[in-house]
Amino acid sequence: MATYDSIGATYADTRRPDPRIAARIHQALGDATTVINVGAGTGSYEPPRTVVAVEPSAVMIEQRPAGSARALEASAESIPLADDSADAVMALLTVHHWNDLEAGIGELRRIARRRIVILTFDHDISRRFWLLDEYLPEAAALDGTQAVPMDRLVTLLGGARIEAVPVPHDCADGFLAAFWRRPEAYLDPRVRAGISLFAKTGEEVVRPGLTRLSHDLSSGRWHRRHADLLDREALDAGYRLVVADLQHQGDPAA
Questions:
Q1: Which CATH code for domain 2-245?
Q2: What is the pTM for the complete model shown?
Protein backbone atom coordinates (compact mmCIF):
# COMPACT_ATOMS: atom_id res chain seq x y z
CA MET A 1 0.00 0.00 0.00
CA ALA A 2 2.30 2.72 -1.35
CA THR A 3 0.42 5.67 0.10
CA TYR A 4 0.83 4.56 3.69
CA ASP A 5 4.37 3.33 3.15
CA SER A 6 5.15 6.96 2.19
CA ILE A 7 2.94 9.02 4.52
CA GLY A 8 2.82 6.54 7.38
CA ALA A 9 6.18 7.41 8.93
CA THR A 10 4.71 10.15 11.15
CA TYR A 11 1.18 8.80 11.28
CA ALA A 12 1.28 7.87 14.96
CA ASP A 13 2.16 11.48 15.85
CA THR A 14 -0.93 13.15 14.40
CA ARG A 15 -3.47 10.30 14.31
CA ARG A 16 -4.04 9.61 17.98
CA PRO A 17 -7.39 8.06 18.93
CA ASP A 18 -10.03 10.49 20.17
CA PRO A 19 -11.71 9.08 23.32
CA ARG A 20 -15.21 10.20 22.27
CA ILE A 21 -14.95 8.52 18.91
CA ALA A 22 -13.39 5.49 20.59
CA ALA A 23 -16.41 5.23 22.88
CA ARG A 24 -18.74 5.19 19.87
CA ILE A 25 -16.72 2.48 18.13
CA HIS A 26 -16.46 0.30 21.22
CA GLN A 27 -20.18 0.69 21.87
CA ALA A 28 -20.88 -0.42 18.30
CA LEU A 29 -18.76 -3.54 18.85
CA GLY A 30 -21.18 -4.48 21.62
CA ASP A 31 -20.45 -7.53 23.72
CA ALA A 32 -18.03 -9.14 21.27
CA THR A 33 -15.28 -10.84 23.25
CA THR A 34 -12.86 -11.14 20.31
CA VAL A 35 -12.22 -8.49 17.64
CA ILE A 36 -10.16 -8.37 14.45
CA ASN A 37 -9.06 -4.95 13.16
CA VAL A 38 -8.77 -4.84 9.35
CA GLY A 39 -6.85 -1.96 7.78
CA ALA A 40 -5.53 -1.48 11.29
CA GLY A 41 -2.81 1.10 10.69
CA THR A 42 -0.99 1.91 13.90
CA GLY A 43 -3.72 0.41 16.06
CA SER A 44 -5.90 3.40 16.88
CA TYR A 45 -9.22 2.52 18.50
CA GLU A 46 -8.38 -1.14 19.03
CA PRO A 47 -10.12 -2.40 22.17
CA PRO A 48 -8.20 -4.72 24.54
CA ARG A 49 -10.22 -7.65 23.15
CA THR A 50 -8.52 -7.26 19.75
CA VAL A 51 -6.88 -10.57 18.88
CA VAL A 52 -5.45 -9.84 15.41
CA ALA A 53 -4.74 -6.75 13.32
CA VAL A 54 -4.57 -6.92 9.52
CA GLU A 55 -2.56 -4.17 7.82
CA PRO A 56 -0.84 -4.08 4.39
CA SER A 57 1.80 -1.46 5.25
CA ALA A 58 4.92 -2.54 7.14
CA VAL A 59 5.60 1.12 7.95
CA MET A 60 2.31 1.32 9.82
CA ILE A 61 2.80 -2.00 11.58
CA GLU A 62 6.18 -0.87 12.88
CA GLN A 63 4.49 2.01 14.72
CA ARG A 64 2.05 -0.16 16.64
CA PRO A 65 2.51 0.26 20.39
CA ALA A 66 4.20 -2.41 22.45
CA GLY A 67 1.65 -4.88 23.72
CA SER A 68 -0.70 -4.44 20.77
CA ALA A 69 -2.44 -7.41 19.20
CA ARG A 70 -0.34 -9.37 16.74
CA ALA A 71 -0.38 -7.89 13.25
CA LEU A 72 -0.57 -9.69 9.92
CA GLU A 73 0.87 -7.89 6.89
CA ALA A 74 -1.97 -8.55 4.48
CA SER A 75 -4.66 -6.80 2.48
CA ALA A 76 -8.36 -6.70 3.27
CA GLU A 77 -9.10 -8.52 0.03
CA SER A 78 -7.14 -11.61 1.09
CA ILE A 79 -7.03 -12.14 4.84
CA PRO A 80 -5.02 -15.20 5.95
CA LEU A 81 -7.43 -16.20 8.71
CA ALA A 82 -9.97 -18.97 9.09
CA ASP A 83 -13.71 -18.51 8.72
CA ASP A 84 -15.48 -17.18 11.82
CA SER A 85 -12.20 -16.18 13.44
CA ALA A 86 -13.68 -13.57 15.84
CA ASP A 87 -16.97 -12.34 17.21
CA ALA A 88 -16.57 -8.97 15.50
CA VAL A 89 -14.47 -7.32 12.81
CA MET A 90 -13.84 -3.59 12.61
CA ALA A 91 -12.53 -1.58 9.66
CA LEU A 92 -11.96 2.10 10.35
CA LEU A 93 -11.48 4.75 7.64
CA THR A 94 -10.10 2.12 5.31
CA VAL A 95 -12.73 0.82 2.86
CA HIS A 96 -12.18 3.73 0.45
CA HIS A 97 -8.55 2.61 0.06
CA TRP A 98 -9.34 -0.96 -0.97
CA ASN A 99 -8.72 -2.06 -4.54
CA ASP A 100 -11.67 -4.48 -4.55
CA LEU A 101 -14.47 -3.46 -2.21
CA GLU A 102 -16.61 -6.51 -2.91
CA ALA A 103 -13.75 -8.88 -2.15
CA GLY A 104 -12.84 -6.98 1.01
CA ILE A 105 -16.38 -6.96 2.39
CA GLY A 106 -16.64 -10.64 1.52
CA GLU A 107 -13.56 -11.28 3.64
CA LEU A 108 -14.99 -9.32 6.58
CA ARG A 109 -18.18 -11.38 6.39
CA ARG A 110 -16.14 -14.58 6.22
CA ILE A 111 -13.97 -13.99 9.29
CA ALA A 112 -16.63 -12.36 11.49
CA ARG A 113 -19.02 -14.57 13.44
CA ARG A 114 -21.48 -11.94 14.59
CA ARG A 115 -20.82 -8.31 13.74
CA ILE A 116 -18.97 -5.96 11.39
CA VAL A 117 -18.30 -2.34 12.36
CA ILE A 118 -17.06 0.04 9.66
CA LEU A 119 -16.16 3.70 10.11
CA THR A 120 -16.35 5.51 6.79
CA PHE A 121 -17.67 8.75 5.30
CA ASP A 122 -20.70 9.76 3.29
CA HIS A 123 -19.29 11.78 0.40
CA ASP A 124 -22.63 13.51 -0.20
CA ILE A 125 -22.08 15.23 3.15
CA SER A 126 -18.28 15.35 3.40
CA ARG A 127 -17.87 17.15 0.07
CA ARG A 128 -19.69 20.14 1.61
CA PHE A 129 -17.04 20.47 4.33
CA TRP A 130 -15.72 24.04 4.01
CA LEU A 131 -12.09 22.99 3.38
CA LEU A 132 -13.04 20.90 0.35
CA ASP A 133 -15.91 23.03 -0.88
CA GLU A 134 -14.20 26.43 -0.71
CA TYR A 135 -10.47 25.75 -0.95
CA LEU A 136 -9.71 22.28 -2.32
CA PRO A 137 -12.30 21.38 -4.98
CA GLU A 138 -9.76 19.18 -6.78
CA ALA A 139 -9.24 17.16 -3.61
CA ALA A 140 -13.01 16.93 -3.20
CA ALA A 141 -13.29 15.54 -6.72
CA LEU A 142 -10.62 12.92 -5.96
CA ASP A 143 -12.38 12.08 -2.70
CA GLY A 144 -15.54 11.51 -4.68
CA THR A 145 -13.89 9.02 -7.02
CA GLN A 146 -12.65 6.96 -4.06
CA ALA A 147 -15.66 7.27 -1.76
CA VAL A 148 -17.80 4.20 -1.18
CA PRO A 149 -21.51 4.94 -1.69
CA MET A 150 -23.35 4.17 1.52
CA ASP A 151 -26.08 2.19 -0.18
CA ARG A 152 -23.53 -0.04 -1.93
CA LEU A 153 -21.76 -0.70 1.35
CA VAL A 154 -25.00 -1.63 3.10
CA THR A 155 -25.97 -3.93 0.22
CA LEU A 156 -22.63 -5.74 0.26
CA LEU A 157 -22.96 -6.22 4.01
CA GLY A 158 -26.40 -7.72 3.56
CA GLY A 159 -28.02 -4.92 5.56
CA ALA A 160 -26.70 -2.59 8.24
CA ARG A 161 -27.61 0.36 10.41
CA ILE A 162 -25.88 3.70 9.94
CA GLU A 163 -24.94 6.06 12.77
CA ALA A 164 -23.60 9.61 12.42
CA VAL A 165 -20.30 10.30 14.20
CA PRO A 166 -19.96 14.05 14.87
CA VAL A 167 -16.41 15.39 15.04
CA PRO A 168 -15.55 17.17 18.32
CA HIS A 169 -14.07 20.66 17.95
CA ASP A 170 -10.90 19.52 19.73
CA CYS A 171 -10.67 16.10 18.11
CA ALA A 172 -7.39 14.36 18.97
CA ASP A 173 -7.36 12.27 15.81
CA GLY A 174 -6.04 14.34 12.91
CA PHE A 175 -8.14 12.95 10.06
CA LEU A 176 -9.37 15.22 7.27
CA ALA A 177 -12.22 17.08 8.99
CA ALA A 178 -10.75 16.96 12.52
CA PHE A 179 -9.66 20.60 12.38
CA TRP A 180 -12.96 22.10 11.23
CA ARG A 181 -12.78 24.72 14.02
CA ARG A 182 -8.97 24.98 13.96
CA PRO A 183 -8.35 25.94 10.32
CA GLU A 184 -4.75 27.04 10.90
CA ALA A 185 -3.84 23.37 11.35
CA TYR A 186 -4.30 22.68 7.64
CA LEU A 187 -1.37 25.00 6.92
CA ASP A 188 0.95 22.74 8.95
CA PRO A 189 2.80 20.24 6.71
CA ARG A 190 3.07 17.83 9.64
CA VAL A 191 -0.71 17.74 10.00
CA ARG A 192 -1.20 17.28 6.25
CA ALA A 193 1.34 14.44 6.25
CA GLY A 194 -1.07 12.35 8.32
CA ILE A 195 -4.04 12.88 5.97
CA SER A 196 -4.03 10.56 2.97
CA LEU A 197 -6.10 12.85 0.75
CA PHE A 198 -3.34 15.47 0.73
CA ALA A 199 -0.76 12.88 -0.25
CA LYS A 200 -2.94 11.51 -3.03
CA THR A 201 -3.91 14.92 -4.39
CA GLY A 202 -0.36 16.27 -4.39
CA GLU A 203 1.22 19.43 -3.00
CA GLU A 204 1.16 21.33 -6.28
CA VAL A 205 -2.58 20.84 -6.62
CA VAL A 206 -3.49 21.87 -3.07
CA ARG A 207 -1.01 24.74 -2.72
CA PRO A 208 -3.20 27.45 -4.34
CA GLY A 209 -6.14 26.61 -2.10
CA LEU A 210 -4.00 26.54 1.01
CA THR A 211 -2.52 29.90 0.05
CA ARG A 212 -6.03 31.35 -0.19
CA LEU A 213 -6.88 29.83 3.18
CA SER A 214 -3.79 31.43 4.70
CA HIS A 215 -4.81 34.83 3.30
CA ASP A 216 -8.39 34.42 4.51
CA LEU A 217 -7.19 33.56 8.01
CA SER A 218 -4.81 36.53 8.10
CA SER A 219 -7.50 38.94 6.92
CA GLY A 220 -10.20 37.55 9.19
CA ARG A 221 -12.34 36.61 6.21
CA TRP A 222 -12.52 32.93 7.18
CA HIS A 223 -13.70 33.79 10.70
CA ARG A 224 -16.34 36.16 9.38
CA ARG A 225 -17.59 33.65 6.85
CA HIS A 226 -17.69 30.79 9.36
CA ALA A 227 -18.69 32.64 12.50
CA ASP A 228 -21.45 30.06 13.00
CA LEU A 229 -18.82 27.36 13.61
CA LEU A 230 -16.86 29.12 16.30
CA ASP A 231 -19.18 28.28 19.19
CA ARG A 232 -20.11 24.78 18.07
CA GLU A 233 -18.90 21.79 20.06
CA ALA A 234 -19.16 19.23 17.25
CA LEU A 235 -19.80 19.05 13.51
CA ASP A 236 -21.39 16.42 11.29
CA ALA A 237 -18.78 16.22 8.53
CA GLY A 238 -20.16 13.00 7.07
CA TYR A 239 -18.39 10.35 9.14
CA ARG A 240 -20.56 7.29 9.64
CA LEU A 241 -20.48 4.05 11.59
CA VAL A 242 -21.96 1.19 9.58
CA VAL A 243 -22.89 -1.73 11.82
CA ALA A 244 -23.94 -5.09 10.39
CA ASP A 245 -25.19 -8.01 12.48
CA LEU A 246 -24.50 -11.25 10.65
CA GLN A 247 -26.34 -13.93 12.56
CA HIS A 248 -29.72 -13.23 10.91
CA GLN A 249 -28.46 -12.36 7.43
CA GLY A 250 -28.64 -14.23 4.19
CA ASP A 251 -26.55 -13.89 1.07
CA PRO A 252 -26.41 -10.16 0.10
CA ALA A 253 -26.53 -11.16 -3.53
CA ALA A 254 -29.82 -13.00 -3.07
A1: 3.40.50.150
A2: 0.91
